[in-house]
Write a structure and sequence with these properties.
single chain, two-stranded antiparallel ribbon, 10 strands
Length: about 110
């Protein structure tokens, strides 16, 4: 029997955010979030966690190839970059004009 996975309603990272890796082999690297996999709690970051994939021959690679591509990183290993201070920061939520907005805990600036 499969275990049911709870998907969080709100996540601290969204597609398009600039994030820094805080743990793992790519610690210290930063990049733009390309995809957020909500069910797995992972994200694909541009230029981070590169892996080699062996592909069969196809139209693009008639002889097959070894392709470098990004692999997902767990969201707990990522921190969003505060554009004002250019440092990694934690995220808080507060109501602004009747809507729930993300804000930087370091500078207090709204992120969205």
């Amino acid at each position: 029997m499969k275990k049911k996975i709870d998907i969080p309603a709100k996540m601290h990272i969204k597609r398009g955010d600039i994030v820094r890796v805080i743990a793992g082999d790519d610690k210290g690297k930063q990049g733009k979030v390309l995809v957020v996999e909500r069910a797995k709690y992972r994200a694909i970051i541009e230029g981070v966690n590169m892996v080699s994939r062996h592909t069969k021959p196809n139209a693009q690679h008639p002889n097959g190839a070894i392709v470098k591509q990004e692999a997902p990183v767990h969201l707990s290993n990522l921190m969003i970059i505060d554009s004002k201070m250019n440092t990694a920061t934690r995220i808080g939520r507060k109501v602004v004009d009747g809507k729930l907005k993300r804000y930087s805990k370091k500078s207090g600036e709204i992120i969205d």
